[in-house]
Amino acid sequence: MFTGMGAAIEMRGVTVRFPSRGGEVTALDGLDLTVEPGQVFGFLGPNGAGKTTAMHVLLGFTEATAGTARLFGRDVRESIARQRIGYLPEHPDTYRFLTGHELLDTTARLFKLDGRTRRMRIEGSLEAVGIGDAAARRVATYSRGMMQRICLAQALINDPDLVILDEPTGGLDPIGRMDIRRIIGELRDRGKTVFFSSHELSEVELVCDTLAILCRGRIVAEGPADTLVAPGERLEKVFMKVIADAEASS
Amino acid sequence: MTRTLTVARVVWLDVIRRKDFYVLLILMALLLVALVSMNLFGLGGVTAYVADIGLMMSWVFTWILAISIGSRLLPQEESRGTIFSLLAKPVTRLELILGKWLGAWSIVSVATVLFYGLVFAVTALHGGRFPGWIVLQAIVLHAMVVAIVCAAALMFSTRLNSDAAATLTGALTATSFLLVPRIPEFVAQAGGLRGGLLLFLYNLLPHFEIFDLRMRVLHDYGAVSAATFMMVIGYGLLVTIGFLGLGWIGYRGKQFTRGSLSGY
Ligand SMILES: Nc1ncnc2c1ncn2[C@@H]1O[C@H](COP(=O)(O)OP(=O)(O)OP(=O)(O)O)[C@@H](O)[C@H]1O
Ligand SMILES: [Mg+2]
């Protein structure tokens, strides 16, 4: 459960510029974002909008050129900020020489879980992502979707209060997508916060209660899903319109 | 501590499950046994000469292992993209470096013991006897050298790819091993500013020669006194910590972005 330290995610004026040939690329441009505990927050935007970059700032991989980012009130540059976080990267990959079970055990040890909790959590996460059968096999033999699933299991091992998922349904079959929806639903029911990016707008519609649309490193639309998308309207249409407006005004 | 040990454990599993590593280890072991045995029959004799070759090859092989393992652990996390899942955990960069070092050092040290064991086993078969205490000291000091080489390789690999890190580590350690003991000779000849510079290098570069007890083992010169032994270990630790510290400084503020990971 949330431990009472303010917003789950708080980004204030976060700008990220990457040096590049003959100038700079502005990936994030003064991003302000607040995700409250318990929200299922859909982070949308066209390719190259800055979604992955924002997540990288939150996890301390990339330092913001300007601005501040906090997780449950902790500066993201402190390693302790990641204690209650689960993260699924955009291109999930992990130690292929370990078996699924060993991988989860290793991850649990990084969170300093004791033996009993470890066994319990490993069972639980394996079951949640539905690869119990393959847990004794080396990850090297996994299919892409299985890789995605074991990485997700890894992200859930510490029973995180905030789960950050970068395109969790990419590479998954329809059953896998439904599994992700179910997992997100279960997390929400247990009062957890879920922050995820996705291009599958029909999926997003089904699970999110709050949305933000990012374009060129700025938030161009944000709010509760049911206000942003009027009853009877489709998210896809809203998305297209918002992006078209943003592109026109820039 | 738990986290450091966990990172080290992953290093172990990685290394021992790679076919190339244990094939390499077996080949080295065979080569060592072959070299030692061949000489026994060829030269017909003095076991000290034979053991000399065996120990020299043990130094070379463990040096190669320490460089190749130490220099690839961090870069491969980046090239395989596993660094993101890893750093998303509450692991500090220091724990990461220490864990990688511990894993690399312990595994190469085990290989060291194995190589010494082989050399002494083969020579013992032919009547060669070496004093246990000195052998033990020799192994411990050899493991210190492994510690330094692993730390140097890790240090370079925090900011370089594995090839560059391995090359630099090889160059640095080989220079130190071959040249440093001879610097005083050069200083005497050079004098002046050049002499000063050489003296500076003499103090800066690691002194691997003081860890090398092969002659003592082979000719039974007697064990090193406890005080000297501890001082040499202390020096080894200091150099190791120095390299790891520099590595940590290099790694602490490192950014992991798409561009930096692909190396372009
Ligand atoms: N290391 C880097 N160097 C230069 N530019 C970068 C770097 N990383 C990201 N960018 C640029 O920053 C912008 C945002 O990229 P980002 O990966 O955050 O987009 P995204 O919203 O996740 O897109 P997608 O939906 O395709 O995953 C892009 O223009 C990208 O090219
Ligand atoms: Mg992305």
Number of strands of chain B: 0
Helix content of chain A: 25-40%
Order of helices and strands of chain B: HHHHHHHHHHHH
Within the largest sheet of chain A, what's the order of strands? 6-7-8-3-9-10
Judging from the principal axes of the Cα atoms, what is the shape of chain A? Answer: globular
Number of domains of chain B: 1
**C-alpha geometry of chain B:** globular
Stretches of chain A where pLDDT is under 50 for at least 5 consecutive residues are none
Report on the biggest sheet of chain B: none
Largest sheet of chain A: 6 strands, mixed
**Protein chains sharing the most extensive interface:** A-B, 35 and 26 residues
Query: What Rg of chain B do the Cα atoms give?
Result: 20 Å
Pattern of helices and strands of chain A:
EEEHEEEHHHEHEHEEHH
The low-pLDDT segments of chain B are: none
Q: Which strand-content bin applies to the residues of chain A?
A: 25-35%
Strand content of chain B: under 5%
Global structural class of chain B: mainly alpha
Question: Key features?
Answer:
heterodimer; A: 250 residues; alpha/beta; four-stranded antiparallel sheet; 10 strands; 26% strand; globular; B: 264 residues; mainly alpha; 81% helix; binds adenosine-5'-triphosphate; binds magnesium ion
Description:
The complex is a heterodimer of chains A (250) and B (264). With 250 residues, chain A is an alpha/beta fold. Chain A has a domain at 89-158. Chain A is 36% helix and 26% strand. Chain A is built from 8 helices and 10 strands. In chain A, the strands form 2 sheets. A 6-stranded mixed β-sheet of chain A has the order 6-7-8-3-9-10, sandwiched between helices. Chain A has a 4-stranded antiparallel β-sheet with strand order 2-1-4-5, with helices on one face. Chain A is globular, with a radius of gyration of 18 Å. With 264 residues, chain B is mainly α. Helices cover 81% and strands 0% of the residues of chain B. Chain B is built from 12 helices and no strands. Chain B has helices at residues 2-17, 19-42, 47-79, 83-87, 93-125, 132-157, 162-179, 183-190, 192-204, 214-219, 226-252, 258-262. The radius of gyration of chain B is 20 Å and the shape is globular. The relative contact order of chain B is 0.14. The model of chain B has no long low-confidence stretch (mean pLDDT 87). At the A-B interface, β6, α2 and α4 of A face α1 and α4 of B. Adenosine-5'-triphosphate sits between chains A (18, 20, 25, 27, 45, 47-53, 90) and B (257-259). Adenosine-5'-triphosphate (ATP) sits between chains A (18, 20, 25, 27, 45, 47-53, 90) and B (257-259).
